[in-house]
Each structure stands twice: as C-alpha cells, then as structure tokens.
Amino acid sequence: MAIERTLSIIKPDATKRNLTGKIIAKFEEAGLRVIAQKRIHLTKAQAGTFYVVHKERPFYDELCEFMASEPVVVQVLEGEGAISKNREVMGATNPADAAEGTVRAEFAESVGENSVHGSDAPETAAEEISYFFSGLELVG
Ligand code: RTP
Ligand code: MG
C-alpha cells in the first residue's frame, strides 16, 4: 500500500481532558508518523468552513460550536495507507459502535464529542491538510 498523508484533529473534548498524548501514542503505535502538528483555537466560522460538507445536517451548528469551544490539536499523519489506518485507530463515529481499543471507544464522550477527526479520502485529505498547513510545515 502507498505512503499517504491524512489530516487529524484532536477535538476539544479530548484537549480539555488532557488526552492529547494518549491519543498520539495510539497513532504512533499503529505506525503513523506525526509530520506536522499545532495547537489552535478555531473560531466558529473557521470550524464552519472546515465542516462545510455537513452544512445541511441537523448537527452542523452544534458541531461548529463544539469545535470552537476549546483548543484543538491539528496534525498531519503519514504512513502506509494512512487515511484508512487512521480511521481504523479512531473507531466508529459513535463511540457506542466503536471497536475495543480504538480512540473513540476509549475516550469519546458522545457521537458529537468524539475526540478525533480524520480525513476520509485522498482528495479530502489533501484539501484538509492545505486548510491548516503550508507545504513548508510538513516535515516528513
Ligand atoms: P470526522 O469527520 O470528524 O472525522 O468524523 P466522521 O467522519 O466519523 O463522521 P462524519 O459523518 O464526517 O461527521 C462529522 C462529525 O460531526 C459530528 N456528528 N454529530 N450529533 C450527531 O448525530 C452527529 N453526527 C456526526 C461528529 O463530531 C462527527 O465526527
Ligand atoms: Mg468525516
């Protein structure tokens, strides 16, 4: 499988509970390498642009409020099949459905406040990475 890059966000519920290191450890144990990382506090508008694909969904406003409620840690992860591998490590969107040992099974609080985001395809990964990072900030 090819080496890929994916955009990861450690969400406000997790940064608030000081879980950043435990979550990064799971990514690293799975063979994903952090090649860029920063802690930022999104505005609601910035969160809205990031999640614009969901703007017609009933949870959109709540999601944007949540993403702007506390700082987040945004990262680029690199590795073999990084996009699907990261989503495997994350677990299902709803922690009630997430497999044992995944980030969401262990740490997520609810379907909305679910600790992590990960890109879902090569095109969205490229778009999402460039939303947060310049090429110079990706140190593979
Ligand atoms: P993400 O984009 O954050 O990696 O999560 P995902 O692919 O597993 O889930 P997606 O369907 O893309 O939904 C994006 C985020 O919206 C929130 N959500 N809330 N209240 C709800 O029913 C609901 N459904 C989704 C979650 O924070 C989800 O991760
Ligand atoms: Mg998604």
UniProtKB/TrEMBL annotation:
Pfam families: NDK. Its main location: cytoplasm. InterPro entries: NDK-like_dom, NDK-like_dom_sf, Nucleoside_diP_kinase, Nucleoside_diP_kinase_AS. ATP binds at K11, F59, R87, T93, R104, N114. The active site is at H117. It catalyses: a 2'-deoxyribonucleoside 5'-diphosphate + ATP = a 2'-deoxyribonucleoside 5'-triphosphate + ADP; a ribonucleoside 5'-diphosphate + ATP = a ribonucleoside 5'-triphosphate + ADP. Residues 3-140 form the Nucleoside diphosphate kinase-like domain. Its cofactor is Mg(2+). Gene3D superfamilies: Nucleoside diphosphate kinase-like domain (3.30.70.141). It is found in: Cytoplasm. Keywords: ATP-binding, Cytoplasm, Kinase, Magnesium, Metal-binding, Nucleotide metabolism, Nucleotide-binding, Phosphoprotein, Transferase. GO terms for cellular component: cytoplasm. Its EC number is 2.7.4.6. SUPFAM superfamilies: Nucleoside diphosphate kinase, NDK. One of its GO terms (molecular function) is nucleoside diphosphate kinase activity. GO terms for biological process: CTP biosynthetic process; GTP biosynthetic process; UTP biosynthetic process. The keyword Signal does not apply. Belongs to the NDK family. Major role in the synthesis of nucleoside triphosphates other than ATP. The ATP gamma phosphate is transferred to the NDP beta phosphate via a ping-pong mechanism, using a phosphorylated active-site intermediate. Homotetramer. This is Nucleoside diphosphate kinase. It comes from Puniceibacterium sediminis. The lineage of its organism: Bacteria, Pseudomonadati, Pseudomonadota, Alphaproteobacteria, Rhodobacterales.
